[in-house]
Design goal:
There is one protein chain. The protein is an alpha/beta fold. Among the domains are: 160 residues, ANL, N-terminal domain (Rossmann fold, 3-Layer(aba) Sandwich), CATH 3.40.50.12780; 76 residues, Luciferase, domain 3 (Roll); 97 residues, ANL, C-terminal domain (GMP Synthetase, Chain A, domain 3). The chain contains 15 helices and 24 strands. The strands form six sheets. The chain has an eight-stranded mixed sheet. Strands 4-3-5-6 form a four-stranded parallel sheet, with helices on both faces. A hairpin with a 3-residue loop joins strand 22 and strand 23. The longest helix has 17 residues. The radius of gyration is 23 Å and the shape is globular. The protein starts with 6 loop residues before the first helix and ends in a 6-residue tail after the last helix. The structure holds malonyl-coenzyme A and adenosine monophosphate. The site of adenosine monophosphate has 19 residues, from strand 13, strand 18 and strand 19. This is Malonyl-CoA/methylmalonyl-CoA synthetase.
Length: 510
């Protein structure tokens, strides 16, 4: 019989022999052993298996970060279902879309959201809604407590789905990137090797677990190495610094590094035991890269990835693999193809800027129930178009210089202008709008809205932004909004966002 390609089987096989050793220590002082992870994921997997839901069912989680939320992910893999994580900041309209589109069989949510979210889920035909709070309470755990703590890992083929991650589209609605067991496992194995995970490594886990960075890169990294995690439910720079002397690996989006640098406690002495600082999900400013080295003596390793592809490139970890170059995202990972092409699709030589395209065992199978969108995003010869613009240097290090997709990355979260413009344009008195990202000292980019009123209407920009706050995730809400008579347009009638960005570029300057 062929080996079970279920990702959980590989993670479980990497648990240390001493199952009573600490696997996760939380910020509230709880310690979970490896045996706890095994037993609790088995109980949850048995609960899911008992629901009599079809193979391939999606299990949607809209839960605060907690070890139990991670266990729900592991249990979903273990039982062979498909995990669908949802940002806790999403509000009603956003969730209605995700649930309607993904048609999950199970929704797990915070109990405070149960009254409206369960109604919404039932309207969309979801059969089971459980609650899970960040204090180990909720119906999910109550129900699971009645099940056996023994569970045989479901057999899955390498190409069967493990997770769907929604990532917004440049024009319309969000698209669900379908990731298989092999996509996730192959990437985790490559990172284990190239980032030189070692016995005794300890990871500070400070990222949310509903996106690739915190859920896959960080959690898989520690689990596949049998490494302990120091778990923070929420990023807090002082709590991270306090844990540095007991840790060896930290992963963050650039905003986390910017905020850590503002703390006096970040010193060489505090980082003396650390082995690796990884940054990604958004461009790391060269100043942050340099300030970090000055303050801590450590060179941040920047890597590049996407929801559709997990990790693609990485600066070297071992000195023998080369130096880490600030401002670059390093060479392609082993087994991953990365090319830079011109508009006609021809490969460009080093130093020339073009479209970044990728392929490899890590690249997703397509967008959930969107075959046309999937076809559009792949070239005829099977490369995925990332929408990022970059160039290679002579050594094969990639630098991301921009994006051809209209996307803002704020504090590591993606904001699609078209989505926000859609909400603004629907508001009374708004004729049209343009949403742009401009440099922001904390979030990298800050969201700014520019609106044009309908004839004879006086718009109150602040009131419109306040109204938006009740509709969409808070990080998508523009930090500043302006009312103007017209939007700048080119001869083709297209809004010239570059001019708006230039005009507002100093808006958030310190
Ligand atoms: C919070 N706020 C943000 C924001 N996060 N505004 C813009 N951008 C953000 N990212 C705002 C809220 O709207 C709120 O405003 C106020 O800040 C306080 O909210 P909070 O939740 O208390 O904020 P905080 O805890 O400080 O969160 C900041 C953060 C968080 C940087 C810790 O955003 C974060 O964890 N980011 C990481 C995202 C991530 O994991 N990305 C990986 C994607 S994977 P108000 O006005 O409502 O008070 C990926 C692929 C890859 O991209 O390559 O990895
Ligand atoms: P997401 O859709 O959340 O997976 O975001 C993926 C996008 O984040 C990529 O297409 C890039 O635009 C961006 N990104 C990720 N890592 C980096 C990085 N190190 N530098 C620049 N951009 C990055």
């Amino acid at each position: 019989m062929t080996a079970n390609a279920n990702l959980f089987a590989a993670l479980r096989a990497a648990f240390p022999a001493d199952l009573d050793a600490a696997a996760i220590e939380t910020d509230t002082g709880l310690v979970y052993s490896w045996r706890d992870l095994d037993r609790a994921s088995a109980m949850l997997a048995n609960l899911l298996a008992s629901l009599d839901i079809p193979a391939g069912s999606r299990i949607a989680a809209h839960t605060e970060k907690s070890v139990e939320a991670l266990l729900l992910y592991l249990a979903t893999l273990r039982a062979g279902f498909v995990y669908l994580p949802l940002n806790t900041a999403y509000q009603q309209a956003e969730l209605a879309y995700f649930i309607g589109n993904a048609e999950p069989a199970v929704v797990v949510c915070a109990s405070r959201n149960f009254p409206w979210l369960s109604k919404l889920a039932f309207q969309h035909g979801v059969a089971h809604v459980f609650t899970l709070d960040d204090d180990r309470s909720g119906t999910l755990l109550e129900r699971a407590s009645h099940f056996s703590d023994q569970h045989e890992i479901a057999r899955r083929g390498p190409d069967e789905l493990a997770a769907i991650l929604y990532t917004s589209g440049t024009t319309g609605r969000s698209k669900g990137a379908m990731l298989s067991h092999a996509n996730l496992l192959s990437n985790a194995q490559v990172l284990k090797d190239v980032w030189d995970w070692q016995p005794g490594d300890v990871l500070i886990h400070a990222l949310p677990i509903f996106h690739v960075h915190g859920l896959f890169v960080a959690s898989h990294g520690a689990l596949l190495n049998g490494s302990k995690m120091l778990w923070l439910a929420k990023f807090d720079p002082r709590a991270v610094i306090e844990r540095l002397p007991r840790a060896t690996v930290f992963m963050g989006v650039p905003t986390l590094y910017v905020r850590l640098l503002q703390e006096g406690g970040l010193t060489r002495a505090a980082c003396a035991r650390m082995r690796l600082f990884v940054s990604g999900s958004a461009p790391l400013l060269i100043e942050t890269f340099r300030d970090w080295e000055d303050r801590t003596g450590h060179v941040i390793l920047e890597r590049y990835g996407m929801s559709e592809t997990v990790m693609l490139t990485s600066n070297p970890c071992r000195a023998s693999d080369g130096e880490r170059v600030g401002g670059t995202v390093g060479p392609a990972l082993p087994g991953v193809g990365v090319r830079v092409v011109d508009d006609a699709g021809a490969n460009l030589p080093a130093d020339e800027i073009g479209h970044v395209q990728v392929r490899g065992p890590n690249v997703f199978g397509g967008y959930w129930r969107m075959p046309e969108k999937t076809a559009e995003e792949f070239t005829a010869d099977g490369w995925f178009k990332t929408g990022d613009v970059g160039r290679f240097d002579a050594r094969g290090y990639l630098t991301i210089v921009g994006r051809s997709k209209d996307l803002i990355i704020s504090g590591g979260y993606n904001v699609y202008p078209a989505e926000i413009e859609g909400y603004l344009n629907d508001m009374p008195g708004v004729a049209e709008s343009a949403v742009i990202g401009v440099p922001h000292p904390d979030f990298g980019e800050g969201v700014v809205a520019v609106m044009v009123p309908k004839a004879g209407v006086t718009l109150d920009a602040d009131a419109l932004v306040a109204a938006l706050k009740s509709q969409i995730a808070n990080y998508k809400v523009p930090k500043r909004a302006f009312v103007v008579a017209d939007l700048p347009r080119n001869a083709m009638g297209k809004v010239q966002k570059n001019l708006l960005r230039e005009q507002h570029q100093g808006l958030f300057a310190r």
